[in-house]
User: What shape does this take?
Amino acid sequence: RQVSASPFGRASQQSSPSATTQTPATLAKVDNTELQAYVVSACPFGLQMQRVISNAIKSVPELAQHIKVRYIGSIQNGVITAMHGEEEAKENLRQICIRDEQASKYWAYVSCYMQKAAGNIPNGMPYGDTKTCQATAGINTAKLNACVTDSKRGLAYAQEDFDLNTKYNIQGSPTLILNGAQVSEFDFGGRSADAIRNLICSSSTTAP
Assistant: This one.
């Protein structure tokens, strides 16, 4: 992992090329490949990753079945935390709840949120307009609010992500885990929709 100066004024972590370069030919092939992208919602580089995944899914909708966005953080004294503070932690939890309880609306919400975040950068970090984007994506707000306030729902979903953070030694946003092993998008063309499609297809016994 590599820490670099963020163009938004804070230190952010971004992927660096892996020590051992991987290629489509060297990736293990599985019947049901899964790419997990670990991000935080106010990281410029994490937003880049969510954006290229969204673009990949728009071009090949079947890819959504093979991709899961997970979040980096922890739970301390019953409160979710994140690397960029309370507002990011709250948004991470919203996105986790939408992902796990209103999955069909996740990408519509995130796509809207990313677009709004591009023009809204208070204190050097990008934040979207969650209220507008919930309406745009057709989110059931009562269900979402219940999820984020119920520790047996929202925090339980988040803890699953955070346990995987530990398992895979996630150090920065974004980090990609393909079928249980870390990969670098830079080995497959960079942080782009083409790289995401390449990772999914190259690791599939029968490509989507």
Observations:
- The chain has seven helices and eight strands.
- The helical segments are 44-59, 86-101, 106-118, 130-137, 141-149, 151-167, 193-202.
